[in-house]
Amino acid sequence: MVRIGRLCERRTVDAFTEADTATGRFRLWGFCSRPRCQAYGKGIYERAQRSNAAAPEAIPNMGGLLPLFFEWNWEAKYAKADPTWTVPSYGLSADEWPTVAGEEPVHAFPKLRVIASDGEIVVRKGPQLVGSVRE
Q1: 112 exposure class (CB count in 10 Å sphere: 0-12, 13-18, 19+)
Q2: Which of 96, 97, 30, 4 is CA-nearest to residue 58?
Q3: Which pTM was predicted?
Q4: Nearest to 6 by CA among 40, 53, 35, 47
Q5: Which of 10, 12, 20, 129 is an S-S bond match for 30, by CB 3.0 to 4.6 Å?
Q6: What is the signed CA dihedral for 46, 49, 50, 51, rounded to 10 degrees?
């Protein structure tokens, strides 16, 4: 559930978002109909209009973990699930995203690979299901 920053516990009448100019993430503000709350919210609303215009694309704060652990054609899978999907500007994998102050960056575990005796890496094209062999 979205938490709204507000002065009192009355029902919200006016609501708007304010973007963080560093990360592009939004905060939701809401104010009741009391004149005191409306006057306080007016300055925040004006500040929010300026920050929303200057905010960069939001840095993701969730997802991006599957590409960390599994090598696969994720672009094709996501595009098949949603034809309007496009590759995010920050990249698919969470380890490609810029770090945000105060947040722990996501680190990938090493991917398991099979290396032949002559030193070549054996690469498979994608996950495969292997059934049991019955004779």
Answers
A1: exposed
A2: 97
A3: 0.59
A4: 40
A5: 12
A6: 120
Residue 94 has which token pair? 């969470």
Rounded-to-integer distance, Cα 112 and Cα 57, Å: 33
Q: For residue 45, what are the contacts with CB-CB under 8 A and spacing of at least 6? A: 14, 16, 29
Nearby residues of 91 by Cβ (< 8 Å), 6 or more positions away: 64, 97
